[in-house]
Design a protein that fits this description.
Length: 230
């Protein structure tokens, strides 16, 4: 599924870390429950089994910034790989969520026995760094409407399911959450979400959001052309 950003192209399939990791105890968190907080030492890496997890940082007391949202079969808390004495970030369950976790010591033991896990983790981190770099470019070069559009496309690509009418269904995301992901206020996100809905790029309700990917990509291309001409 294309998002309008230049896709990351890999010459060969990425190694799957799940193939090399032993099963761990499954922990369950209810909606809104903190999995770990910013002042905890980074001692474990987590894997989402079911549900969704928001990882955020506090830019200041009134401005949380969403680093990313992780879904089934995605890792988070990778700061444990370098043994940070303070997480600096908070992980929160967006819905009832099950996760597995592995401590540094457990990972080191597995890595010694299964060296291809190290390759898989490195590839995952490089891929994640590339994705974060694209977001930084958008923060630097795009206005708020374009940042929001690119963010919606990225979330649809990572977490959406294609519907029969060609739209992509994404589970509910509040305007507050989107504002923290994009780096603006909830009121501004609401303004542009209403605009995108009036123009037929999205439909949304409490049950979820339907995103018309091709139409929103076309808007991004047209908006970019208009900006260059002006």
């Amino acid at each position: 599924m294309s998002t309008g950003l230049k896709p990351l192209v890999y010459e060969k399939p990425l190694e799957d870390p799940l193939v090399h990791l032993p099963r761990s105890t499954v922990l369950e968190f209810r909606k809104g429950q903190v999995i770990y907080h910013a002042d905890q030492p980074a001692s474990s890496v987590y894997l989402v089994i079911n549900g969704r997890v928001k990882v955020s940082r506090q830019a200041d007391p009134d401005l949380p910034v969403v680093i990313d949202i992780y879904r089934r079969d995605e890792f988070f808390g990778e700061g444990a790989l370098v043994g940070l004495t303070r997480r600096g970030e908070e992980a929160t369950a967006l819905e009832t969520t099950q996760v597995m976790s592995w401590t540094n010591a457990e990972l080191e033991d597995v890595l010694l026995r299964r060296p291809r896990l190290a390759l898989a983790l490195v590839q995952m981190l490089v891929q994640r760094t590339n994705e974060f770099s694209s977001r930084i470019v958008s923060f630097s070069a795009d206005n708020t409407a374009r940042r929001l559009a690119r963010s919606l496309l990225r979330l649809a690509e990572r977490m959406g399911e294609r519907s029969e009418d060609g739209s992509v269904r994404v589970l509910p995301l509040t305007h507050q959450l989107l504002s923290q992901y994009v780096g603006t206020s909830r009121e501004i996100v609401t303004h542009y979400m209403n605009q995108f809905r009036r123009e037929g790029y999205i439909r949304y309700s409490r049950k979820g959001m339907d995103l018309y990917v091709d139409a929103l990509q076309a808007w991004l291309r047209a908006d970019s052309t208009d900006s260059q001409e002006s």
